[in-house]
Design a protein that fits this description.
By secondary structure, the protein is of the alpha/beta class. It has eleven helices and 14 strands. It folds into two domains: 168 residues, Rossmann fold (3-Layer(aba) Sandwich), CATH 3.40.50; 173 residues, Rossmann fold, CATH 3.40.50.2000. The strands form three sheets. Strands 2-1-3-4-5-6 form a six-stranded parallel β-sheet, sandwiched between helices. It has a six-stranded parallel β-sheet with strand order 11-10-7-12-13-14, sandwiched between helices.
């Protein structure tokens, strides 16, 4: 029996972000169950994948037509609506994954809700996202999008990064890691809190707290000038020796492995991959309180530098990183079975209707 064709729609790596990594790990996990095809929404075009930005609608329609099921991961509301409308036009089965959702007015919510109902199943990555929708109970499921990494498949870090980390550890510095998919703004503030990270390291250094930051920005395509401004700020504050700010394609899982603390300083969020990976690797995770975080995460008040400094300094002074444990476990087989069941249940509804059962 031929495998069913699942069309994955969303940003494909690179650059590496929470959604693109979810797609990558999902297809690796389920490639023996389904035949995957792709519509890439990333700004970085890859020769091996069709990219929506090519504006080749005939090819796009052909991919929709040949798919048994659409698995939609788009981040923008406009793109979700577009794919759902086209999928409905072609009478396709659709699963919509909501990784995050902007605040919208009631007038906007109502038509959006109606179109989102075209999906056969909606997966919300956290409980708070439910407040954005008016959906039947059987229409959605709340489930974190985290798929555990296969550590052996993660690429090794560049030698210069490993040397930098080893040097800081040899000096007794606590290594704090953070990342950003890009240097975006939300409410006129840095989404990922890179400015907070720089400010808090400056404060800690003045108190002779031994700490070093590694901050990875996946893409600076739209914000290279901002990236360079931060570099200059680090130099002016004489922090560049203890703050490694890099734009490089790498395995952030490997960075977490070599760090002591994982920091998530975002001013808006969904179900952050970085937070889940930190917990999975049994690292202390400090995160802003903008959304409900998983159990085991230490919270600080959003955009509050004083609270961030207080919580981070306490963590550093505790020096119990090696013994830090989380009540958090993920069985790869359970994760695989969840997605197989999710896809096959939607496909089975299609068969059932065709057979009039």
């Amino acid at each position: 029996m031929d495998s069913k064709k699942v069309l994955i729609i969303g940003p494909l790596a690179p650059p590496f972000g929470g959604v693109s990594i979810h797609i990558l790990r999902l297809t690796q996990l389920l490639n023996s169950h389904f035949d995957f095809d792709f519509v890439d929404e990333s700004r970085i075009k890859k020769k091996e994948y069709f990219n929506l930005r090519s504006l080749n609608l005939l090819k796009y329609f052909d991919k929709i037509k040949n798919a048994d099921l659409l698995y939609i991961n788009s981040g923008k509301t406009s793109l979700r609506i577009f794919h759902l409308l086209i999928g409905k036009l072609f009478a396709k089965k659709m699963i919509l994954i909501i990784h995050s959702f902007p605040k919208t007015s009631t007038l906007v919510k109502r038509p959006v809700n109606q179109i989102y109902n075209f999906a056969n199943q909606i997966m919300l990555v956290n409980e708070q996202l439910k407040t954005n929708f008016i959906l039947p109970e059987n229409k959605y499921v709340v489930k974190e999008a985290f798929i555990p990494p296969a550590i052996e498949n993660e690429s090794e870090l560049s030698p210069y990064i490993c040397r930098w980390l080893d040097e800081k550890k040899d000096k007794g510095n606590t290594i704090i890691c953070a990342n950003a998919s890009s240097l975006e703004m939300y409410n006129s503030e840095d989404v990922y809190g890179l400015d907070l990270c720089i400010a808090v390291l400056d404060r800690l250094r003045k108190k002779n707290v031994c700490a070093s930051f590694i901050f990875v920005v996946s893409s600076i395509e739209k914000n290279e000038e901002k990236f360079l401004e931060y570099k200059n700020e680090l130099s002016k504050l004489k922090l560049d020796n203890d703050f490694l700010l890099i734009n490089e394609r790498l395995s952030f899982v490997r960075v977490i492995q070599m760090s002591d603390i994982v920091l998530r300083s975002t001013n808006t969020d969904g179900d952050a991959l970085t937070v889940r990976e930190g917990l999975f690797l049994k690292k202390p995770v400090l995160a802003s309180d903008v959304v409900k975080r998983p159990e085991g995460v230490i919270l600080f008040k959003n955009r509050n530098i004083d609270d961030l400094e207080f919580k981070l300094e306490n963590l550093i002074q505790s020096k119990n990183f090696a013994n830090f444990e989380h009540e958090y476990s993920f069985l790869l087989n359970d994760t695989s079975q969840f997605y197989v069941d999710l896809i096959e249940t939607v496909l089975a509804k299609q068969k059932c209707r065709k057979a009039r059962c």
